[in-house]
Amino acid sequence: MKPFTITSFEEYKEVYQDSIENPASFWEKYAKTFDWHAPWDEVHSGSLDEGNVKWFEGGKFNITENCLDRHLEEHGDKVAFYFEPNASDDIKRGMTYSDLHEEVCKFANVLESKGIKKGDRVAIYMAMTTELAIAALACARIGAVHSIVFAGFSAQSLADRINDCDAKLLITNDGLERGEKLVPLKEISDEALEQCSTIENVIVCQRTDTDINWNDDRDEWWHLLMEGAAIDHEAVPMDAEDPLFILYTSGSTGKPKGQVHTCGGYMIWTSYTMRNVFQVEEDDVYWCTADAGWITGHSYIIYGPLLNAVSGIIFESTPTHPDPGRLWKVIEKHNVTHFYTAPTAIRALMKEDIKYVNNYDLSSLKVLGTVGEPINEEAWHWYDEKIGNGNCPIVDTWWQTETGGIMISPLPGVTKTKPGYATLPLPGVQPALMDDNGNEITETQAQGDLVIKQPWPGMTRGIWGNKERYMETYFTKYPGNYFTGDGCRRDADGYYRITGRVDDVLNVSGHRLGTAEIEDAIDDHPRIVESAVVGYPHDVKGEGVYAFTICEGEISDPEAFKKEVNDLITRQISPIAKAGKVQIVSDLPKTRSGKIMRRILRKVAANETDDMGDISTLLNPEAVEQVKSGKAY
Ligand code: WT7
Known about the structure:
It is built from 20 helices and 30 strands.
């Protein structure tokens, strides 16, 4: 695999050129570094125009053999995962590659004994524990399609996801502890399943002492099933284009969309990006703090690290439990060399007393990473100086659920970094900026909508059950290109700086939320006639949720009203989507065609009301003054 770990900027430029000129031979070379049962017919086919891109079709293999079996001889005794539980202690809990392999084989046998077959969908709604990774990998081993649902989502969100993909089996915990909070996962699952007719079995992994209800016809304990399971399991051969998993993510309209990632392209993309962006060496310890319920956890806690036989950490807790020194404590405890987190965590922790950092020895660190949202310069410098001691390159990695893995990022020690810039595309990635007329901007220094011009192996192959929406969301605005939904600036060095979403998607603490789904939730309030949700700048979360609501009759207690609104959001989506501000208005500014002019609401929410821009096309210009002068709670 050596030729693909890029170690100098000269080499980067050469490899980049080659990847763009000869994509087939470039990716074929990389694909050949994996174990396959049968070779592919064609390296790639299809186009972004038609939304039918395929990679390595006809090739047969199983991703878990490449994550586990292949490493056993050389790395069987190496730790695959250290588990760091919610409660802080000094015990190191390492699970080796051999142990993980055995557990995955056993659980694969359990799933098959429950009648799960290749192509069936399995929902996973679990705490951040090693068992979550085992559950996902066992699905992959038998060819079942996993759909992991972040354990902070509500019963309604879980039910929506299960129903959208007709999942047959659910794997959950009795409950989980996160910080001081106890989340009753089984109880939430029971509530969700009242609306789900496709789930035949529920496997419950014990994690807490929570009292739970039990349905003898449906529920079984993980540990009891595992007791009797055989440790051998022959992995089911999969086609490179067979689906590996579905992961739901929010878009600008409607309910979350199930992004489909396939076995082959995703394996290649996560392995390749992990290797080059982090440059992890044999004895390194790599820690990504994300939750496995998001794509970052899929790609850079589970698949990417295992494909590269890296030792990683599964972290069950929060950055502030039991105190704001937790992340730094874990780095010292495990001699972490590579640390990957979100700007929101950095912004929250830099507000705390610096003693929480200085209490710990962080000298093991070599590379720092950030992901999920733009990082402001102040946070970048704090991360660089206080955590990296000025000598750890920061990789600001831009990518999305849809891209499968990292797309634009510095390579540590290779690319000169610049605060706030994701810098340059990885080989194989061809970004471009588009202007308002749909033309590519060819000047180096420019600003526009970010698109990707060429298919890449890791890209989403579809929205589960909805080809039309897939085409419309990604391939219609700029035909022949993949549209990211992000705005972007390119500087004189050709470096890319992501400016944020240009659609109605919010990024709250690195969590992606659709304004439409939040509006849907709050419109259920009996007094709300119409609502419009926009983002506003928030110094820790990056963006906060701001809800404008038109109500029937007088709202005498706006604080209580806000709580009711947030209870609805919590029930239907998740507490992560709660509105930081709620404003009651009598009218919303609309265009003559009846569309809410969100640009104006965003200005009001950001408190930038001096220049409201052109409002001459409004149906009801008087609404602007009224919204401007209102009060938010
Ligand atoms: C959106 C994708 C990437 C995995 C986690 C989020 C924003 C992501 C960066 C970055 C600026 C970033 C974009 C993107 N984003 N990384 N380094 N700098 N913005 O995945 O939930 O699919 O969200 O996150 O707006 O479109 P996601």
